[in-house]
Amino acid sequence: MRALVRSVPDSLVRCELTCIDRAPLDVGAARREHAGYVAALREAGLDVQVLPADEDHPDCPFVEDVALVVAGRRILLNPGAPSRRGERAAVAAALSPHLRMPEGLSLDGGDVLQIAGRVFVGRSTRSSAAAIAWLAAAIDPPVTPVDVRTVLHLKTGITALDERTLLWSSGSVDPAPFDDFELIATPPGESAAANVLRLPDRLLLSDGFPSTLQLLRERGYDARPVAIAEFARAEAGLTCLSVLLPGDR
User: Fold this and answer.
1) Which domains can be identified in the chain, with CATH numbers?
2) How far apart are CA 99 and CA 175, in angstroms?
3) Catalytic residues
4) pLDDT tens digits, residue range 3-32?
């Protein structure tokens, strides 16, 4: 497996936010966290391809929202925030060949959760019903829409731990579409821990959630904390910082 990531620009301080009442981001801290994140991917055996930062696009490190890989098929998406559309050119070159989502539709990769041969897509402020319908027609795995309630993206509130188990922040997304799976609720006060990056032999968990870390380890998961506190202030999580691809280029 390999991972596509993108470096942090100075302009990160101007990234898209749903909550504007917060102190400015520390770009230096974000870069240190990004380096630690890349190191964690490489430690897990992934071949990491790092695209250069783009100062014209503050959100470019959140590369997952621009691209999707389903059953080996690479798809270039249209992020829901119009300011992010210019991020696609560099990602398109790295993903060639790929299928491109038609203009006029919007879908963030952070709203796409794949588990057990199925694809769940969040109906959020960033992903439109028309885009979900297009994706369902474009790929073979079945697509199930999920209502996103109190978080930005589907995977802000729920992620896969294995092929039968999900970590879920209660109330964040509609749990009904996941009736066929076991849902583990995040411990009290640790709802932000629901965004876990599942790798072939381990789970990466945001640092600062000791109860969730203990819960996962007690259940037999090789869960490893990664510091991304500054990215969390930018409303980002572990999954959005990379696109995971098959090992062949």
Assistant:
1) 2-245 (3.75.10.10)
2) 30
3) 153, 240
4) 999 999 999 998 988 765 667 899 999 999
